[in-house]
Amino acid sequence: MIRQGFVEKNLRFLFPLPAVIFVVVLMVFPVGYTFFLSFTNWTLTSGRPLAVVRLASYIQVLKEPRFIEALGRTFYFTFAAVIAEMVLGTALALVLHRSFAGKNLMKTLLLLPLVATPVAIGIVFNLFYDPTIGILNYVLSVLGLPQSGWVSDAKTVMPSLIIVDIWQWTPMITIIVLAGLAGLSTEPYESAMVDGANSRQVLFRITLPMLMPTILTAVILRAIDALKTYDIIYSMTRGGPGYASENLNVLAFKYSFEYFRMGQSAVMLVFLFVIVMAFSLVVMRLRRAFEM
Amino acid sequence: MNKRTLNTALFYLVIILIVIPILFPFVWMLMSSFKTQVDIISWPPRFIFNPVMRNYQRVFIEQDFLHYMKNSVIVSVSAVALSLILGLPAAYSIARYKQKKLSIFILVARLMPGISFLMPWYIVFSRLHLMDSYIALILSHMLIALPLVVWVMSPYFDAVPRELEEAGMVDGLTQQAAFLKILLPLSGPGVVTATTLSFIFSWNNFMFSQVLSQQKTRTLPIAVYNFLSYVEVDWGAVMAAAVVIMAPAIVLTMFFQKYVIKGLTTGAVKG
Question: What does pTM read for this prediction?
Answer without folding.
Answer: 0.91
